[in-house]
Each structure stands twice: as C-alpha cells, then as structure tokens.
Amino acid sequence: MYTLYFLPSACSLATQVVLRELGQEVTLIDKQTVESFTEINPVGTVPVLLDGDQTLTEGAAVMIHLLSKHPNKMWPDNDPVAKQSAIQDIMFANATMHPAYSRLFFAANSIENVELRNQVFEAAASNIRTLWQVVEDKLTTYHFLGGEHVSAADIMLAVYSRWGEGFPVDINIPPKAQKMIDHVLSMPSFATSLAAEQGENALVNAV
Questions:
Q1: Class for the domain spanning 80-187
Q2: What local confidence, expressed as pLDDT, does residue 82 receive?
C-alpha cells in the first residue's frame, strides 16, 4: 500500500496514473489539507510517495522507483539500451517539458504588467511548441515514446499538455504527439485518477 501526496491536476497526477497501471493500491492525500507539509517535503512540492518507511520525492525519481520495483511493460528492465532511453524520456518530461510549462504559471502569478506578462507567455509557448516538435520527431516509428506500449514519459507529457488550456497562448501540439496524448487521456487509469483527485475515492484499489 502506497500513500501519495498530490495537488489536483499537478504532476503528481502522472504518478497516480502509473500506480494504477502497475495495479497498486494507493491512499491519496491532498497536500493542501496538510498544515505542515514542508515537514514531509521541505521543498513543498508534489509528488511525495510513502513506500513503507521510505519517503520519496522528486517526480522522476519516484517514477523510476515504481517502474523498477514492479514488473510492467513501461520499463524495459532487461534491455540496457531501451532502459537508458526510457530514463532519458522521463527526464525530458520532468526536467525539460515540465519547467517550460511552469513558466506560464510563473508569468500569470508573478508579472503584473500585462504587456510584459504576455511577452513571457508567448516566449514560454514558443519554447513549448519547440519541445512538442521534439516529441513529434521521436514518434516516427511508434505511437508511443516507449515503442508499442504507453510509457511513463507519455503519461507525464499528457498531464503537462493539459496545463496550457488555462493561458492565452497557442501551443499547437503536432498530430502524432496529440494522438499519443489523446490515447493516454482516454485510458481508464487516467479517468479514475482524475476522479480520485476530486475526492470521489479516498482509498483506491488500482486495477
């Protein structure tokens, strides 16, 4: 049994989806309901995953921990080259695409001057469009970054793709990348995870 601290629609959503894909039970705790969350994670960010006596932080590290621990099609454990590629895809999602979208939130929350804020919005959107083209170029042979099966990186990217909807920017995700995103968003594990974040289930048995 895992415990996952989350923030609705944040990057912790990808962790929850992966837990369900792995068939793991998870108790969800909204970090906004925890008065002293920084005592759990001094940085104050999600996801935070409790695995027995371990408190795991940083989205990419949490993801790799779960994929390495439970047998699954998302993690090519017996193929060093494919495994390295999977790690690179996860790091691209977590350390490159995630910060690119985060600039939109920074501009919205920190820049009062409308003209300057819009300039930052457009600069961030331009960078995001470039990154989605990188994803598009990697999808020339397979529908997913992991090949024939959905990967953890696909799930992470699908979560981030939803973040642009609340900003006055045009992201223009290319067709192959959009098809991958649409597939992930249609997965039962994704729909169940969204519902759970809305409080419909405090304790969920993943299937």
A1: mainly alpha
A2: 93
